[in-house]
Specification:
By secondary structure, chain A is mainly α. Chain A has one domain. In chain A, 42% of the residues are buried. Chain B is α/β, with parallel strands linked by helices and 244 residues long. Helix content of chain B is 40%, strand content 25%. Chain B is built from nine helices and ten strands. In chain B, helix 3 packs across helix 4, helix 3 packs parallel to helix 5 and helix 4 crosses helix 5. The longest helix of chain B has 17 residues. Classes of the chains: A mainly alpha (248), B alpha/beta (244). Bound molecules: adenosine-5'-triphosphate and magnesium ion. The site of adenosine-5'-triphosphate has 12 residues of chain B, from helix 1.
Chain lengths: 248, 244
């Protein structure tokens, strides 16, 4: 319990300290861009597979359980709504935590164990500044991009099922998606992506920075990073949908 | 001048540093010796603020090492880690130029020149700039780590075991390097080692750390002739081991 409270405190310290400290963005532009590219490339595969399968699964279940009671047209609506309101952002973010979040924790924890973090400090380089801030900024950009990518592939997965297995018309499918599209829901998913990105990256970084010595320290830090990321992503998901429900 | 004033640091209920005080004079080479695990690295890290003692304080050039001063004072101090601690993901050139880029905001061309100069001082060729730490030998890593410290023109350099684990020839070049940096650039050097020969060879003063305290402090001559129990034990076991 004590550990959890300390960790949450540390995570928010990491989040706000990295965000609100005065930074020279231009100086770290190369670090930020490199991190965006890295997150994108390393997570592309897992996000793609998870999203396409997610789309297939969701649409299959809706069709199997409700297909007899509702017209096919509403299946399309149900899938596009659930993807844009919830599944895309959640799915992509969890996949990113599994791929990039773990990498960030392991990377920082290894630096900690090898005293590289201490070495930065002795050179008057703030590790929050040099290591964490670029990753945080990168995740605010790359998470929403991956969310959009995931939404498209989720719907693509659903389309495969509807069009090729159910023989639903391609145009009707697209029309169904377009008909029910609401800009604000889409924006909500982008906001979720950005917030989940910031939160999970500060969590991954916090546990990396506070890893204990030895190879075991790296493993423990990585596990904690994933557990806390998943829990806090769900918590912030709830907060964001409550805020957006004022307008939606 | 560095004043370590009544420092206490406890790990797992053991007072690794126990009300320890020591003064380090400008432009001297002082070596701290002591058994493995006695707290030499902890003492060195306290001097640069990486370890926060429960009691006591460190004063460097009349400023206490606290709060905003830490950042200021660290710019005057170079630290050479026991295991070099170069950033694995950066090549040697970027490692040495890191603080020039991020702290001093110097342009890349000037940085390159300074990095090459620093490498020359530690007798490394400019081609090592492209190498990554994982592809370098222990001796090269130590020298690169020293180059990373001197490129920032520090007034003090703290060396944690600069020669341990290196062959006698490389050890010798590193010792010469430390002495030359001290003579030419007037860098005050604090060296931690259990290599007694090296300590006697290059130091102005030698300090013995034992049971959390400095139990001996004096010039090399008084060290060699000392009848202090700790020192006699240390000397005997050292010469027994090295067969000298
Ligand atoms: N971060 C830490 N957490 C817990 N204990 C520590 C920590 N750092 C050092 N210690 C303990 O403090 C004692 C002194 O460690 P230190 O590394 O200073 O020894 P040393 O004199 O440098 O030894 P060596 O010659 O082997 O490098 C050791 O018993 C070590 O276990
Ligand atoms: Mg040590």
């Amino acid at each position: 319990m004590n550990f959890a409270i300390n960790s949450i405190g540390g995570i928010f310290y990491t989040l706000f300290y990295s965000l609100f400290k005065k930074h020279n963005i231009y100086h770290k532009l190369d670090l930020i861009v490199r991190e965006i590219v890295r997150m994108g490339i390393e997570s592309l595969g897992v996000v793609a597979i998870a999203s396409i399968l997610g789309g297939l699964i969701a649409v299959f279940l809706i069709d199997q359980r409700l297909g007899a009671y509702i017209p096919d047209f509403y299946i399309t609506e149900a899938i596009s709504k659930s993807v844009i309101i919830e599944l895309g952002a959640l799915g992509a973010s969890i996949a990113l935590v599994g791929r990039s979040g773990t990498r960030i924790t392991a990377e920082i924890a290894t630096m900690k164990v090898n005293e590289e973090i201490d070495a930065l400090k002795t050179m008057a380089i703030d590790p929050y500044d040099y290591l964490i801030y670029p990753k945080m900024t990168a995740s605010v950009i790359s998470y929403p991009i991956m969310v959009v990518f995931s939404e498209i592939l989720f719907i693509f997965g659903a389309m495969i099922f509807m069009v090729y297995i159910k023989g639903f018309g391609f145009r009707t499918f697209l029309f169904g998606i377009r008909e029910h599209f609401r800009m604000l829901e889409f924006i909500q998913s982008l906001v979720k992506g950005a917030v989940f990105g910031m939160v999970s990256t500060s969590i991954s970084s916090y546990f990396g920075l506070n890893a204990s010595k030895g190879a075991r320290g790296v493993g423990e830090a990585t596990t904690n990073g994933v557990v806390y990321s998943v829990v806090l992503i769900f918590l912030f998901d709830y907060i964001i949908i409550r805020i957006f429900s004022l307008w939606l | 001048m560095v004043i370590v004033d009544k420092i206490t640091k406890t790990y797992n209920n053991r007072k690794v540093l126990d009300n320890l005080s020591i003064k380090i004079n400008d432009e001297e080479i002082i070596t701290i010796i002591g058994k493995s695990g006695i707290g030499k690295s902890v003492l060195l890290k306290t001097i640069i603020g990486l370890v926060k003692p429960e009691k006591g304080r460190v004063i460097i050039d009349d400023l206490p090492l606290e709060g905003k001063n830490i950042y200021l004072l660290r710019k005057k101090i170079g630290f050479v880690f026991q295991k070099s601690a170069l950033i694995e993901s950066l090549n040697i050139g970027d490692n040495i130029g890191l603080a020039l880029k991020f702290v001093q905001n110097i342009d890349p061309e000037t940085i390159k020149g300074k990095v090459i100069d620093a490498l020359a001082k530690v007798e490394l060729k400019p081609d090592v700039m492209e190498l990554f730490p994982s592809n370098m030998s222990g001796g090269m890593l130590k020298r690169a780590a020293i180059a990373r410290a001197i490129v920032l023109n520090p007034k003090y350099i703290l060396y944690d075991e600069p020669t341990t684990g290196l062959d006698p020839i490389v050890s010798r070049t590193i010792e010469d390097l430390i002495v030359n940096l001290n003579k030419d650039l007037h860098i005050t050097s604090v060296i931690v080692t259990h290599d007694l020969n090296s300590a006697i060879g290059i130091s102005d003063r030698i300090a013995m750390l034992s049971d959390g305290k400095i139990t001996f402090l004096g010039n090399t001559e008084s060290f060699v002739n000392s009848k202090n129990g700790d020192i006699m034990e240390f000397r005997n076991s050292y010469y027994l081991k090295t067969g000298e």
